[in-house]
Amino acid sequence: MKTLLITLVLLTSFVVAQSVSPVLDGIYAKKNGNVLLLYGYNNTSGSVQTIPIGSTNQFSPAPADRSQPTVFATGRSYATIPVEISSGTHVWKLTTKTSTGSFTATKSSHRIYFDIQWKDAQGNLVSNLSSVVPSNYRLVLSTGSLTVKFGYVAGVLTPVEASNNDLTKFYLSVVSGGSYTVSQENLPVSFVQKSGEGSFTSFIDESYGTANYNGSFNYFLHPVVN
Known about the structure:
Elements: H1 2-17, E1 20-29, E2 35-43, E3 49-50, E4 57-60, E5 71-72, E6 75-85, E7 89-94, E8 97-102, E9 109-117, E10 138-143, E11 146-153, E12 156-162, E13 172-175, E14 179-185, E15 198-201, E16 210-211, E17 219-225
Parallel strand pairs: 9-17
Antiparallel strand pairs: 1-2, 2-6, 3-5, 4-7, 7-8, 9-13, 10-11, 10-14, 11-12, 14-15, 16-17
């Protein structure tokens, strides 16, 4: 009877642990040429689960221990396990479930948001933009075959033209490791472009501007200063 009880407890624990699934949240290019796999997990068991490093919590190929957690909180955990690779396919196994990332797989995209700073001759920020920025001013953003133009609508930088006719996105989506260009049209003659224009490449570990914008690992804020 005792043996049966122990067996039932172990079986129940294993079945509950199977409620924890590994998730590949993104595949991103690094400036050094490597690829960063960002894993998370989903624990639907309703309770904290412990799965020690070993045959039911391991990466392959070796090393099996990539600093992945052994204690799994309830719910969804996003992009908390970074694994840098230089080639091949890598698999995270939790109990009987797996999640696979590859060096050659299609890269995930970054969201690039833009902030334009208008400064007067003394270097102070101009607050009343309607008095200095014409209605036909455009911030022009391009990546691949997509071009989006932003203008000011009620004082807010807003997409007003797009080659794909999608004016709902207030950011530029750029494939990790891909390039994008920034330019301006109808810049007021009283302003000189100081920084933020040109061609840029978006890497997960080094991009122009501010990383982790709004607390999201794949969001960046690109400043343009006039």
